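Section 3.1: Structural characterization of target chains.
Under the original work plan, the team committed to producing a structural model for every single-chain target entering the pipeline before any wet-lab resources were allocated. The record below documents one such target. The sequence was received from the expression subgroup and is listed exactly as submitted; it comprises 464 residues.
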Amino acid sequence: MKYYYSIKEIIINKNKFLNKNLLIKGWIKFFRNNFFLEINDGSTIKNLQVVIKKEIFKKKLKKINIGNPIKIFGKLKLHKNNKDVEMLPLNIKLYGKIDKKFFDKSILQNKFHSLSKLRKQIYLRFRTKIFSSIMKIRHNLYIQIHNFFKKKHFYYINTPIISNNNAEGAGETFRVTTIDFENKKNNLNCKNDFFKCKVNLTVSGQLEAESAMLGLGKVYTFGPVFRAENSNTNKHLSEFLMVEPEIMFYKLKDIIKLSVKLIKYLIKKILKYCIEELKYLEYYHKKNNNKNGKNLIKLLKNIQKKKFIKISYNKVIKLLKSINNKIIFWGDDIGSKHEKILFEKIFKKELLPLIIYNYPKNIKPFYMKINKDNITTKSIDILFPYIGEIIGGSEREHSYKKLLKIIKKKNMNIKKIKWYLNIRKLGTIYHSGFGLGFDRLLQFITGMKNIRDVVPFPRLPGKI
């Protein structure tokens, strides 16, 4: 079998391949004027033009349809613009059949489709230029997260997806069971269930990561987490990816530095390795009048180079109340409407991430260390323009007595959390960590308005 080259290889090394016979394989993306083919094989968002001579391939032309898998052997020539290359085929082989009735209703046609329409044929989205661009960035972002932590000498660990604790204490979890609820004869007692107790899909791998940290020093977990929130917004999913590092001997200032370094590193690498995809996304956003992504590359470069804005929760409340005295009160969480005011009115000129620190203890989870004022925690949230919160972190309470007191005050089930308490008895030390929402970060990097458009198969309330 002849070796075939990817279209990316051919475009990058075009001078090497000029006037040579090559084999390519891919899909027909466009078919123009009955003799121009645009071929793509997934290796790049760019297509390779194939110019067909009608008199040679007359029978084949009748069978060609957009979406057809194809194999072409031919000579690579310089395009008349003296910049691009194109192929003159010597042999063509078509594979598969296209249902023309379905094709007319599909999203494979050569035109801009609304993102809501793309979501209706989610299994075909990968074949569109917009979605393949996002998926290539997603792949690179995933790889670079692992590269960052490897360079920092972190250990990657896998934490359970099935759990019987709720690290966030929200109670919005998906139950995991083997009990057949439709059979009324079944006893729904937990003793009859597989694990003999009530279990759920994890909302965070943090607690388990803390126990690993006490033996390995610097660890991170990177995997799926689940929230049973009935939130139909442009930044909520029922299943998403979280990056959660936990580090021994780290205080709040240290995780702020680490999280900022991580974000800047990731943006730098995406600008380096995915510039073609970013350019296409910027073009797409301009065409569709999406302000989030009109100046995408400039925005990313700005964030990669400049200092983030660091501000206390107290100061944020004062700034928000200066705009509208009744919009928020001390002790309230900072929600979407507040984030919008912060970025569109108060910090409009900077358009940089906000590091907000020292949140009230009453709106934060039990494991966060409380400040000496006894009302605020040693915690941070990092908010991004257009998206909102992407990172949340804190110093962890390492005192057994203090942690036990908090757990009792919050009326938590001590039996479920006993193992977590026990690690405070055996040589614990001050430590810190944070969680980064991978899909929200990707949403920001790609300039997409809706998080559903950056996930291969989004899981949402009422939809599966």
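Residues 320 and 328 are 7 Å apart (CA to CA).
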